[in-house]
Amino acid sequence: MGPVEIYHSVPQLSEYLVLETSYQPKFDFKSSKINFPESANLKNDMGLRSHEQLVVCVGVMFLLTVCITAFFFLPSGGADLYFREENSVHVRDTFIRNEALRKKEQEELLKKAEEANPVPIPKPEIGAADDAEGRRIFVKQMIKFAWDGYRKYAWGENELRPNSRSGHSSSIFGYGKTGATIIDAIDTLFIVGLKEEYKEARDWIAEFNFKDLAKGDLSVFETNIRFTGGLLSAYALTGDKMFLTKAEDVATLLLPAFETPSGIPYSLIDLQTGRAKTYSWASGKAILSEYGSIQLEFDYLSNLTGNPIFAQKSNKIRDVLTAMEKPEGLYPIYISMDNPPRWGQHLFSMGAMADSWYEYLLKQWIATGKTDQRTKREYEEAIFAMEKRMLYKSEQSNLWYFAKLNGNRVEHTFEHLACFSGGMVVLHAMNEENATIAQHYMDLGKNIGHTCHESYARSTTGIGPESFQFTSSIEAKTERRQDSYYILRPEVVETWFYLWRATKDEKYRQWAWDHVQNLEKYAKGNAGYSGIRNVYDSNPEQDDVQQSFLFAELFKYLYLIFSDDDVLPLDQWVFNTEAHPFRIRN
Ligand code: DMJ
């Protein structure tokens, strides 16, 4: 399969030229004349004599000649290997023509920078971007800034500490340095047209040997959605087979986790020994969002490689769940590893530990070209049961949210993670033939998008907390210190993205832009972006972690919301839960 037909907007000259150029004389190639803008004439009026004008003219002519000669005769840097000609960024090529010289200059600059005391990085003029194109370019610049920090201070590590300027990792990655950011970011780098950055990431991945790098217990779910998913989408976007081989390697290493009596996989695996286990705190149980979010990647992988093993593993999980009785149609979070398995405690949620199970039911139906009717039916039944038992509207502001259920006890709390559900139901509406059902889910999606926006608007920073409550005294806010943080999560912007695509209501773009500005204000660190510890603090402390999903998800959705709809059209692409796009089958 060759590179796909993805609209790849060619970045404009203005992206690279930040200087105001309107005061410079312009060379008219047709008439071979130099035209001075009005402001230049002003100078004339202010006293340039004719021989001085002549000197300026000759000088400008000379400079233009040098530039044109350099443009046409210096050799190409060859960074276009993986790009179609129509996607190439010609303006930028002038910067990469003399690769050797550029590298030398870069090394010298780096040396100088390292010798000097760190200088605070100026914050860009965020007020300047006042249309979608300018905002899209601004997001691209944010991506470049965050990537440069990772590249310089944490290359090959899982994540970056943007303020300490060092590597960071969390337990989901084990304790090896497996370059999670590189793999999670590569599709975004490609989509936004950061060519050199993409090329460098691609070269690193070509040498990537997961088994050698991974150490300790890794999360099967996170490895699947970030690594297998990231590599699959890189393949889907570029047609570069290397990515597919790597995706298959990663997924193959996960297979021992599926060797359980029921086929429901363990949560953790040590790739060196193949030993797998559940979390120590989960009392020997597996977790719905984890074992339920395998099928999109595994099914796609089998489909692309012709190797049936992956689809067999994910279908087995689905079969086991189909056969089980669901309490009032709901899916509890915990399940035992026996055959047949038993549900654990009756805890139900649209957020943590449950979320992507529902998302994958819907998206698997879409990914199969809407042929998998069993999946569609199970999705509809699950959402219907949740609407019936868990959907509430707040008393004062009429804000809609899915509460949590513990047995029959209702907890009126909604998580940032659960905000993804607005986008999910909108995606359902966009794919639903029955107009009444479609309208119902479009309305629900709008309501959830609004609730999640309120959780942002009601905080001091304009950024929403990890989790918020609905009580007689507060709505869409939290008074719990432990729930007040924000770790660059994408779910709220994700929902606004789907709403934007479905409705074209400008308010969703505006909300996304507000978030961009708040990220600049509160989450921007020295060499990247960081989470913040308290969204209700006017001067919030940063947590010094640049999560890999910042690139995979938040940046991608922000970039897409300011792009045209033919950048990853939703009738051709479906996003996995880490926002890695996969091709929808015919
Ligand atoms: C991502 O890793 C995925 O979206 C996952 O499904 C849950 N949420 C995180 C980011 O918040």
Automatic annotation (TrEMBL):
Transmembrane segments: 54-74
UniProt xrefs under InterPro entries: 6hp_glycosidase-like_sf, Glyco_hydro_47, Glycosyl_Hydrolase_47, Seven-hairpin_glycosidases
Keywords from the UniProt entry: Calcium, Disulfide bond, Glycoprotein, Glycosidase, Golgi apparatus, Hydrolase, Membrane, Metal-binding, Signal-anchor, Transmembrane, Transmembrane helix
Needed cofactors: Ca(2+)
Binding site for Ca(2+): T577
Reaction(s) this enzyme catalyzes, per UniProt: N(4)-(alpha-D-Man-(1->2)-alpha-D-Man-(1->2)-alpha-D-Man-(1->3)-[alpha-D-Man-(1->2)-alpha-D-Man-(1->3)-[alpha-D-Man-(1->2)-alpha-D-Man-(1->6)]-alpha-D-Man-(1->6)]-beta-D-Man-(1->4)-beta-D-GlcNAc-(1->4)-beta-D-GlcNAc)-L-asparaginyl-[protein] (N-glucan mannose isomer 9A1,2,3B1,2,3) + 4 H2O = N(4)-(alpha-D-Man-(1->3)-[alpha-D-Man-(1->3)-[alpha-D-Man-(1->6)]-alpha-D-Man-(1->6)]-beta-D-Man-(1->4)-beta-D-GlcNAc-(1->4)-beta-D-GlcNAc)-L-asparaginyl-[protein] (N-glucan mannose isomer 5A1,2) + 4 beta-D-mannose; N(4)-(alpha-D-Man-(1->2)-alpha-D-Man-(1->2)-alpha-D-Man-(1->3)-[alpha-D-Man-(1->3)-[alpha-D-Man-(1->2)-alpha-D-Man-(1->6)]-alpha-D-Man-(1->6)]-beta-D-Man-(1->4)-beta-D-GlcNAc-(1->4)-beta-D-GlcNAc)-L-asparaginyl-[protein] (N-glucan mannose isomer 8A1,2,3B1,3) + 3 H2O = N(4)-(alpha-D-Man-(1->3)-[alpha-D-Man-(1->3)-[alpha-D-Man-(1->6)]-alpha-D-Man-(1->6)]-beta-D-Man-(1->4)-beta-D-GlcNAc-(1->4)-beta-D-GlcNAc)-L-asparaginyl-[protein] (N-glucan mannose isomer 5A1,2) + 3 beta-D-mannose
Residues at the catalytic site: E222 (proton donor), D355, E466 (proton donor), E491
Disulfide bonds: C419-C452
UniProt keyword Hydrolase present: yes
Location(s) in or outside the cell: Golgi apparatus membrane
Any GO BP: N-glycan processing
Metabolic or biological pathway: Protein modification; protein glycosylation
E.C. number: 3.2.1.-
Ranges in a coiled coil: none
Membrane-topology descriptor: Single-pass type II membrane protein
A single Gene Ontology CC term: endoplasmic reticulum
Matches recorded under PANTHER family: MANNOSYL-OLIGOSACCHARIDE ALPHA-1,2-MANNOSIDASE IA-RELATED, MANNOSYL-OLIGOSACCHARIDE ALPHA-1,2-MANNOSIDASE-RELATED
Protein name: alpha-1,2-Mannosidase
